[in-house]
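Item description
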Amino acid sequence: MKLPFYIVDVFAEKKYAGNQLAVFMNASDLNTEKMQQIAREINFAESTFITSIEPENNSASIRIFTAEHEMQFAGHPIIGTSWVLMNKIVESNPQNFKLSVPVGQIPILQSGDLVWLQAAPPQFWDEFSKDDFLEFTNLNKSDFDDKLSIQEVTTGSAFVIVPLQNIKALEDLKLDKDKTNQWLLAHCKTAHRALYFYCFDKGELYSRMFCVENNQLIEDAATGSASTCLQAFLLKYHSPEIKVTNHQGDFINRPSRIYFDGKLSNDNFDIKIGGKTQFIATGEWEV
């Protein structure tokens, strides 16, 4: 059995930046175990498997896998897979698309060279003490933004949002893998456990995402799902309207740009993130 596949860089202003993604076509006959094996073999942050396409309805269904587990929702795989479908697969090259993932159907809009997704309404979970983070990071109390709490937020995948005071604290950040994993296991509500540190510096937004997978501390180059959670957090606590570019990946030589366009009105969250996708390669995978 042969699977056509595409490789793209997502949230990338140019090639060899942003977050890598493998998109596998014609995956309806693959079982979960085989999808997981392929994702582990290619070993990107995520890989997607297109299980059905309805070109006449501008819609498709996909499944998303990290090297370790299946994701219910993830931003860069949705943006990147949508770009492949709208620009490489569906002949009409639609500007609007609907992509179904385990959490539901995600509306997609392509505007110029940006692809935008509309996120699900957020849920705000537990708040945490800054003292906890002194145990497994190199941060001092003065490194945190003392006006905001640390909180777990989800729009389909959950992230612990950690506001920092400035870009130096973010750039110098170090985590102890074992202690971080123990804290995540003890405090996060779902099987998806991750930390999203951010700061504003001279009006610019910067971020870093860390998780533990396969007993390794992983830093992600661009995290769309975390960006939707961060946007929700900022709308709730910072400003009811936000248009800003989130800079991620700068400290690991994979600069990524995630565009925010959000509003909060009468407790209704309108959360959109967008990004550019760069085509890298196409090929055929032997199953």
In short: The chain has two domains: 2-120+276-286, 123-265. The chain has six helices and 18 strands. The two ends are 5 Å apart (CA to CA). Residues 185 and 193 are 7 Å apart (CA to CA).
